[in-house]
Structure formats: structure tokens, C-alpha cells
Amino acid sequence: METLVAARSVDHRLTRHMAAWDSAWARRLLPPVEEAAEHTKLWWAAAAVMAAGGGPRGRRAAVTGIAAMAVAELVSNGVVKKLVERRRPPEEWIPHDDVEDRPDSSSFPSGHTAAAVAFTAAVAPALPWAGAACAVAAALVAVERVHSGAHYPSDVAAGAAIGLSVAALTRSAPRLAVRRPG
Length: 182
Hints:
This protein is mainly alpha-helical.
């Protein structure tokens, strides 16, 4: 129980620290990142670029990424958020205007992060250059979710874990489907 209390305390301190982070680049960069990640627009655009310019590998990577993203969103937003009711960080912890834009759903886990990490981890093995570019964007999405006051760092970590798990399952599903018993 002490470990849980200590973890919650660290989570709350990190949330306050990250939300209070006031730098010029954060004010310029994070709002457009949030807008691009909203409704998974960023990942659809990345898939379109991969499909258009990456040949057969790019098209396979794009399809795998979109599938992983969809499953991660289903798991995080459709299942886990319904099972775990957690309030968003208190508004008074967030010293900027982004706090007014927060959703009303459960804070746990971060669906944006789950989708970003699932897409990235699913495409990276097939197209390392795309995976590297998407990893930067996924990290910025994760930071933005805490900075905006939408999530605690533990929500983002849980979303990342869901994304990684779903990407691994999505990438292995075709091989598992064609295995024959015996």
C-alpha cells in the first residue's frame, strides 16, 4: 500500500511540474501536436505517406499501423476507460488555458498515447525511417497529454503499454493465423 501511495504522489508531482512547464517552444509546438493527434489525423496522414511512397512494404506497414491504432483505441477507450474510472488532473494544477479543452471521460489510460505508440511500434519493424519519425511524434503526443492537463504520467505510461502490446499482437496475428496445428 505504501508503494501505491508513493507512486501516486510521484504521479501528482510530475503532473504539476509538466503542466507548469512554460517554455516558448512548448507553447508553439504542443498545441499543433494535440490538434494533429486529435481523431488520429496524424497517424492517418503518416499511413498515407507510407502507402504512397513506401512501395509494397510501405503499404503493408501503413495497413498494420492503422490496424494496431484501431485496436489500441478500442482497448484503451472502449474497454479500459470503462473499467477504470479516474478523474482528470484537477484544473487548479494546470496554469494555462489548455485545461478548458479536456474530455469528460476517464483519465486512465491515455487513448491518444495508446494509438500513437501502437501505430509507431507496428510500422517501425517494416519501415525503420517511418518508425523513427513516428516515434518523435508519439513522444510529443505523450508529453502534450500531460502538459495539457488531460492525463497523469501514469495514464500515458498505461497507454504506451497498451500500444506496445497491441502492436506486438497485430504484427504477429498474420503468422498466428496461418499456423497449422500439429
